Amino acid sequence: MTAGDTPRPIEGALKLGITGAAGRMGRMLIQTVLDVTDGSVVLHGAIANEGSAAVGQDAGLLAGRAACGVTVGDDPVQLFATADAVVDFTRPEASVRFSALAAQGKAVHVVGTTGFSAEDLAALGRAARHTPVVQSYNMGLGINVLAALVRQAARALDAGWDIEVVEMHHRHKIDAPSGTAILLGRAAAEGRGVDFDAARAVDRDGRRPDGAIGFATLRGGDVVGEHTVILAGAGERIELAHRATDRGIFARGALKAALWGRGRAPGLYSMTDVLGLG
Ligand SMILES: NC(=O)C1=CN([C@@H]2O[C@H](COP(=O)(O)OP(=O)(O)OC[C@H]3O[C@@H](n4cnc5c(N)ncnc54)[C@H](OP(=O)(O)O)[C@@H]3O)[C@@H](O)[C@H]2O)C=CC1
Ligand SMILES: O=C(O)C1=N[C@H](C(=O)O)C[C@H](O)C1
């Protein structure tokens, strides 16, 4: 079987693990899994960072729900060895470490973390030789559809149209530009048929470089995530925008990816695969 083939059917609820349980996305993921009532998934385990005050707490209570009987731990080895799938929204260094554990334990690894270096992404690719890894800088349906629209627009327009990606997030976000901005910039580069790494202009001072795909980052307040791709021509401008108002969209997408990955051949997959947008 090759990557992308139909997965073999598996009986029973998916045993789901969650990392970064005390984080904004970790708590949202716990809520989302506890809300599932069709028996397709069960919260198998949740871990927080070593030394976190969340360790030892009931995961349901931590996420603002009723107690669920799952105690938050701090042992990723045990989690990845026993879960069917683990959803991971943490930090790049943690996700890279977890991907090796997923490879050992043959757990589906759904990676929502952003801010990866090229070396980090290569490490995820190595883990994906042994287990299904679904990695996407945005787990929501809307952004993945937007990326397809951006690719199409950039393909239709010549290099006389300047491409800029503008994003805004909450004041706590640590990476910039956002992973989603990069995902959208890559889609524009693919549509235009240029090398993204050569075209990207993140830290700009002075005049706009010709042919650049530019990025502008705004941070403040509690903004969940806003992205606009601007294609600016002479005498006209196209703006393709998405506004996320609820982190639940990312959690539900990640859960969908975990269920989709079950029984699938090892490989590095994206939400384009999960959502059938390829
Ligand atoms: N792909 C997508 O659709 C989305 C991606 N994201 C991304 O997900 C990530 C998390 O976002 P968010 O939940 O807002 O961030 P938070 O900072 O709220 O949560 C991150 C959690 O990971 C934990 N963590 C950090 N380092 C480690 C480590 N080395 N080992 C174990 N746990 C660790 C943190 O613990 P501690 O506080 O103790 O450091 C924290 O609880 C970010 O990269 C963000 O950009 C967010 C939303 C959607
Ligand atoms: O950190 C966040 O909050 C988000 N991060 C992701 C990103 O970097 O694109 C996705 C979403 O926009 C929220």
TrEMBL record:
Q: In which pathway does it act?
A: Amino-acid biosynthesis; L-lysine biosynthesis via DAP pathway; (S)-tetrahydrodipicolinate from L-aspartate: step 4/4
Cite the binding residues for NADP(+). Answer: 65
Please list the residues that bind NAD(+).
20-25, 112-114, 136-139
Positions of the catalytic residues: 169 (proton donor/acceptor), 173 (proton donor)
According to its UniProt record, which reaction does this protein catalyse? (S)-2,3,4,5-tetrahydrodipicolinate + NAD(+) + H2O = (2S,4S)-4-hydroxy-2,3,4,5-tetrahydrodipicolinate + NADH + H(+); (S)-2,3,4,5-tetrahydrodipicolinate + NADP(+) + H2O = (2S,4S)-4-hydroxy-2,3,4,5-tetrahydrodipicolinate + NADPH + H(+)
Per UniProt, the keywords (alphabetical) are: Amino-acid biosynthesis, Cytoplasm, Diaminopimelate biosynthesis, Lysine biosynthesis, NAD, NADP, Oxidoreductase
The signal sequence is none
Q: Which GO terms describe its molecular function?
A: 4-hydroxy-tetrahydrodipicolinate reductase
Residues in Dihydrodipicolinate reductase N-terminal domain copies: 15-139
Any Pfam family matching the protein: DapB_C
Give compartment(s): Cytoplasm
**EC number(s) stated in the UniProt entry for this protein:** 1.17.1.8
The UniProt entry lists the main location of this chain as cytoplasm
Q: NCBIfam families recorded for this chain?
A: dapB (TIGR00036)
Q: Which PANTHER family does this entry report, sorted A to Z?
A: 4-HYDROXY-TETRAHYDRODIPICOLINATE REDUCTASE 1, CHLOROPLASTIC-RELATED, DIHYDRODIPICOLINATE REDUCTASE
Similarity field: Belongs to the DapB family.
Quaternary structure and interacting proteins, as annotated: Homotetramer.
Its recorded name reads 4-hydroxy-tetrahydrodipicolinate reductase
Task: Identify the species of origin.
Answer: Inquilinus ginsengisoli
